[in-house]
Amino acid sequence: MVNKMNHYDEFYEKLKAEYEQQFPLAKLAQERAQRCLVDGGSHAARQWTPYAFRARSAHGARVEDIDGHSIIDFWQGHYANILGHNPPLITQTLVEDLQRGDGLHTGLLEELEAEYACVLAKVVGVEQVRLTTAGTLATMYAIMLARAFTNRKIVLKISGGWHGANPLALKGVGPNGHGYDHVDSAGVPNSTETEVLVTPFNDPDNLRKVFRSAGDRIACFIFEPCLGSAGFAPASMEFMQAARELTAQYGALLILDEVITGFRFCASGAQRLYGVSPDLSTYGKIIGGGMPISAVAGRADVMGLASGQAGPNRVMFNGGTFSSHPLSMRAGLTMIRYLCENEGTVYPQLRASSQALFEGIERVFAQNGILARCMGLHNPEFLKGSLGAIYFPNKADFVPQNAEDFGDAALAGAPLREKALKLGMLLNEVNVVHGLGAVSLAHNRTDFDQVYAACEAFAGRLKSAGVL
């Protein structure tokens, strides 16, 4: 792709200039924020070049920003808002609690926590659950439990796999010009270099090779059923089955990170669709209904190491001060029950509308002479859902299988997708992340028509600039 983009730099600079013209108040807000906030915000994923727009309010499929734009949003709360922003189902429930004088944190045990945990455990099919507040913490605690249970140190993860800013998995997150086999953050223990191993997604042969060489020292293998850094490419059935078989064979624990995929494809984890039962799973995002909740869920013998009665092998999994905040419990319980009770209508509707959107995006680019594909459209039937990503392949039948594929400029047009597409779509009031993002039930045909118009406008810009 790079050798076809002779005018890319000039094209991108023009997009940035137009963006600054359309979002002038956001620029001023960014400058104000940088006086006291590092980089103007507290999460890197909410920033982009030259600067991010600033939300004023959010409802359903759209965000209203301080510059007066009504932006169709596919970020949707880091993929958490399956019903759209601020659904009345949740907000009205929280208002009712607050009006009764309930809802703020007590720091005491409350029945709502146990009710929530029991519902979650039953729905995802596990023996025990423990709650915390962020996906990062959930994956960290899950790895700690696995290391304690197996009395082993090595963590095996996927190249490109993101499990939050978890110090036990901050290796191989992003490439550094020499592949993914490097530590991604300063400040983590020196042992991270040797105690975290990395293997490519959807490569069962390499996975078998890793286990043959280090299987008796591996505590756990952790990965996402759909790899976020690969445009949500799903694990092949062969890879998923190999992961389960090899971890069992070598005495390691299988941890599925379902922070994004949990309740996204069905009213449970994606693991249910694969017919695989991991030893531990992590959940977050959707299970909080827009409030901060995450969970580690799994086998009682492993989870029991978090108990105060576990003895010298106890894992200090205390979850944090706000690990069972009453409003979070109420929002999460309301969301999970709604999705379970309406599973037969919610997920077919979400799947149908999302697949129509993905097909329409590909069609619009094709009509304008641009080869573009949409991840999510080419999944196996049982995993066609609402997570998608536009990419620009070098040949029509190329479908990325891992982070190496999706991040390759020549194979999948990574710079064009990550930077230029982002700004080009925002110039037409559509917010995409890593190519697109997550469709919610709030998105409708009118929104999709605006997305198609944005894609057509971007295609026109590409052609007039001679980029493709």
Notes on the structure:
This protein folds into 2 domains: 2-79 and 345-465, Aspartate Aminotransferase, domain 1; 88-341, 3-Layer(aba) Sandwich (Aspartate Aminotransferase, domain 2). 41% of the residues lie in helices and 14% in strands. The protein has helices at 8-22, 24-33, 76-79, 88-99, 111-124, 135-150, 192-195, 204-214, 237-250, 271-274, 300-303, 326-341, 343-367, 403-406, 409-412, 414-426, 445-465; strands at 55-59, 62-65, 70-73, 128-132, 154-158, 196-199, 218-223, 226-227, 233-234, 253-258, 280-283, 294-298, 373-375, 387-391, 430-431, 437-438. The strands form 4 sheets. A 7-stranded mixed beta sheet has the order 4-12-11-10-7-5-6, with helices on both faces. It has a 4-stranded mixed beta sheet with strand order 1-2-3-15. Strand 8 and strand 9 (233-234) form a beta hairpin. It is globular, with a radius of gyration of 22 Å.
β-strand percent reads 5-15%
Q: Which percent range fits the helix content?
A: 40-55%
Count of individual helical segments: 17
- Write the CATH homologous superfamily of the largest domain: Type I PLP-dependent aspartate aminotransferase-like (Major domain)
> Roughly how many Å is the radius of gyration?
22 Å
Number of strands: 16
Question: If you average the pLDDT, what whole number results?
Answer: 96
Unreliably modeled segments: 1-5
